[in-house]
Specification:
Length: 356
Amino acid sequence: MNKVAVLSGDGIGPEVMAEALKVLDVIAKKYNHTFEFKEGYVGGIAYDKTGLPLPEETIQLCENSNAVLFGSVGGPKWENLPPEKQPERGALLPLRKHFNLFANLRPVKIFPSLSHASSLKQELVKDGIDIIFFRELTGGIYFGQPKKIAEDGKSAVDTMAYKEEEIKRIAVKAFEAARLRNKKVCSVDKANVLMTSILWRKIVTELHEKEYSDIELSHMFVDNAAMQLVRWPAQFDVILTENMFGDILSDEASMITGSIGMLSSASLRDDQFGMYEPSHGSAPDIAGKNIANPIATILSAAMMLRYSFDMDKEASAVEKAIQKVLKDGYRTVDIMSEGQKEVSCSMMGNLIVERL
Ligand code: IPM
Ligand code: MG
């Protein structure tokens, strides 16, 4: 039995999740699988119902599942809560940490029929872009201690810390993935300034020499990487980087594809358990209007099939169905352009299901 914890969260989370579940239901029927979906509260809605953004029952639910499908959390309603009660800080980050989901995979791929939606000039993207980020997700400045505002409110500190083991395990994931792709890894750091980056570069280099010398490894400073991503994105294949650099660069890279509504992600550890979520947020301004783009969540569900359940052909079938819908000219409003057919969130889900 494939047990999935479904945490839809806030804003557009429930709408896009509903479409992903539709798609998974069809996959189950078509390929003869059983998925058991159990819903849990997370984020603002969890706070409203239980007083906590990540209630114990939700953690238990995830503990008892093989994978977690996550929608999105947060919204203006909860912005002024104390930090530990806020949806992002109080739910998303603790979930990642609790389940030791140290490897965040974020594929940035241009669908040929959407290349005009890119914010870059056509000549830079017309031959296709296929990058995957391996972002370290449970260390660095997000979690390092001390992390606090002084009692007098006049100073604050965050700590960026990394241990050899933390760097090594994410680097292994990136090198392994590169072996199945174009055998190229670009490791991004700030080794001209940060001690953690000097260590990062040393560990990655040693690992490369010892075990992955078949892979072409390059190093790039993060400021240069931010520039190179918009100057010539096709030079990248696998990008390996630490937590905060990966956060920033992956948002930047999403615009190469035209919409953050297309970007999926998987957060993994060393077994097959994983948490899968769209890279976009809860978009409270469009919540409840049935206009959100469900594709990022559906693609995340496809990643779940691939990484947690070894269902590679099922995952590919979902990805192909999405490509087909786009090729047929259907667009949600965020990727809409002249001459195409605008559809709602639920209609997009239906169209993908039809093509499965
Ligand atoms: C992301 C998000 C989160 C992060 C926020 C919501 C805490 O931006 O998943 O990229 O910074 O990791
Ligand atoms: Mg982010």
